[in-house]
């Protein structure tokens, strides 16, 4: 995500209202190494935000997800990136996910996220959109 000026990321929510986070690789040359973050990444030339989040999800966790809903955009001043934020439903355990990027994935309740090593603006987005995270519209039953 560090070499791009635009990115698409997602809040993936399971039926329990937990959010899937990825522990980024611990490589000094990547953006926010060894920190928890959302699934997503850079938008490639000629690609829409929606196409990017679907591609990044497939690359990072091996899943094709079509239920994404666009919920916000923001500018990450610290990393100088325009970010499109999506939300989607995911009904699978973390153990079933085949991680293609990062050290691993885990589901967290929003209340657990404040104690994680994570980019501050991502924590703010969780708090800002907590109503959508708990909205049954975005959850798989």
Task: Report on the architecture of this protein.
Helix content is 18%, strand content 29%. The protein has 141 residues and is of the alpha+beta class. It has one domain: Nucleoside Triphosphate Pyrophosphohydrolase, CATH 3.90.79. Strand 5 (69-76) and strand 6 (81-89) form a beta hairpin. The termini are far apart. The mean pLDDT is 88.
Concise description?
About 20% of the residues lie in helices and about 30% in strands. By secondary structure, the protein is an alpha+beta fold. It has a single domain, classed as Nucleoside Triphosphate Pyrophosphohydrolase (Alpha-Beta Complex).
Q: Give the helix tally.
A: 3
| Mean pLDDT, all residues | 88
Structural class computed from helices and strand pairing: alpha+beta
Shape-level CATH architecture: Alpha-Beta Complex
Overall radius of gyration: 14 Å
How many beta-strand runs? 7
Helix content: 10-25%
Which stretches of 5+ consecutive residues score pLDDT under 50? none
- What is the CATH topology? Nucleoside Triphosphate Pyrophosphohydrolase
Characterize the biggest β-sheet: 7 strands, mixed
Shape descriptor reads globular
CATH class category name: Alpha Beta
* Domain unit count: 1
Descriptors for this entry?
alpha+beta, 141 residues, single chain, 3 helices, globular, seven-stranded mixed β-sheet
């Amino acid at each position: 995500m560090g070499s791009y000026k635009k990115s698409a990321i997602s809040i993936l929510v399971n039926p329990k209202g937990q959010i899937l986070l990825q522990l980024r690789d611990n490589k000094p040359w990547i953006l926010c190494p060894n920190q928890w973050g959302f699934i997503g990444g850079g938008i490639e030339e000629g690609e829409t935000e929606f196409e990017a989040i679907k591609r990044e999800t497939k690359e990072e966790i091996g899943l094709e997800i079509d239920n994404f809903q666009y919920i916000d955009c923001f500018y990450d001043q610290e990393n100088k990136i325009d970010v499109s934020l999506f939300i989607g439903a995911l009904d699978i355990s973390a153990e079933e996910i085949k991680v293609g990027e990062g050290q691993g994935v885990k589901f967290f309740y929003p209340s657990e996220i404040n104690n994680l090593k994570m980019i501050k603006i991502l924590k703010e987005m969780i708090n800002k959109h907590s109503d959508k995270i708990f909205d049954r519209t975005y959850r798989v039953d």
